[in-house]
Design brief:
single chain, elongated, mainly alpha, 4 helices, 185 residues
Length: 185
């Protein structure tokens, strides 16, 4: 007979090997399930936290919108004194006034005698008009920056609210699915 072994012996050996593989296979899945549980629980916690922060931030922002607006106005008045002394403040005011076509907090009189060039309207040659000497509606921006900022915020509030809703519509179902996965693992 030589190298040949009976069929039943081969079959018995092979089935015992199969049983050992089958026994190791569930332990592999339990390891994967443990890692999945950690990953899913972290995802659930982070997405739940994002929903809570987005929701609480929206409610607080709406509830305290008047106080936030007054705080913005107060900060703008305080920063007027720092214009020309702090580079970041100077650049911020210049960019705001040029981009929003505004001057000062309420109007150009907030600057007293030192109206910055960023309050001056552009001439056709991309030059600034001489608004320091001749303060007219043809040379200087008349609207205050506080009003311009609030108008820009109101104009963009629909976009901001829409983006928040899209985020909520994406995050809430994902959080619910993550919770479901946590309870079924």
């Amino acid at each position: 007979m030589g190298d040949q072994t009976p069929y039943s012996v081969q079959r018995g050996t092979q089935s015992s090997l199969d049983r050992s593989k089958v026994l190791k296979f569930p332990s592999f899945f339990s390891t994967v399930r443990a890692w999945d549980w950690v990953g899913v629980s972290q995802y659930f916690l982070l997405s739940f936290l994002a929903v809570v922060v987005l929701g609480v931030g929206s409610v607080l922002g709406y509830a305290f919108r008047e106080r936030i607006a007054l705080g913005l106005q107060d900060q703008m008045y305080e920063s007027l004194d720092m214009y020309g002394r702090r580079r970041l403040t100077t650049v911020s005011w210049d960019m705001t006034q040029e981009d929003l076509h505004c001057c000062g907090v309420e109007d150009f009189r907030d600057w007293s005698e030192r109206i910055p060039d960023s309050c001056c309207m552009d001439d056709y040659g991309a030059r600034k008009r001489p608004c320091q000497q001749l303060q007219t509606s043809l040379t200087i921006y008349r609207i205050g920056c506080y009003e311009a900022i609030t108008q820009a915020l109101v104009a963009n509030s629909l976009l901001l609210g829409g983006a928040s809703m899209v985020l909520l519509l994406a995050i809430v179902p994902a959080t619910i699915m993550a919770y479901y996965m946590l309870t079924t693992i």
